[in-house]
Amino acid sequence: MRIYSFEPFYFHIVGRCPDKVWPGGDMLEAWDLFSWVLQKFSENRIVTHAFVLMSNHYHWLCSTNKKDVNFDWFQESLTIDFNHSLKTQEILERGFANPVFESSAKIVKLDHIVSLKNAYRYIYRNPVEAGIVGRAEKYPYSTLSYVLGRREEELHFRCCDVMHIISHPQAVLDFVNLEDKVIYGLWK
After folding, report:
1. Confidence of residue 19 (pLDDT cuts 50, 70, 90)
2. Cα(113)–Cα(102) distance, rounded to whole angstroms?
């Protein structure tokens, strides 16, 4: 268990599934499970600023004012929810439930505004870089379209607009959709 002690800081958290798809293979179901767990964490004073769910990994930009945070509990909660959502017959046929995550989440503490902006951009550009969509705001499993008010359904959790996209939507979208590479932390 990793516990961090600090004043308020931002984090970029990445978790990866060992398979090419989430258990059950349904992205909408996976999005719903992640959303409910993010709601549990938001009730525990962890604020989501950006979240993108890819076919076998997620990116989460969050912050907290709590002095001690156990981010591993996020993946543990998701594992429990995924295993409960799988059909009992599917688990019986395999004899066990496959692990949901290949390892502990990668957690990068963002100490500077430049790191925060790059993480924000990196997270929302992930589906573009993967060739799934042409523009970040078009990806359906992302908080970006919700923050922009382009989705009819509501999020199950609060997503706080850290980059002022509501005040300056075109400037922020231009920044997110720039094609040059961003380099920071663990990713290129």
Report:
1. confident
2. 30
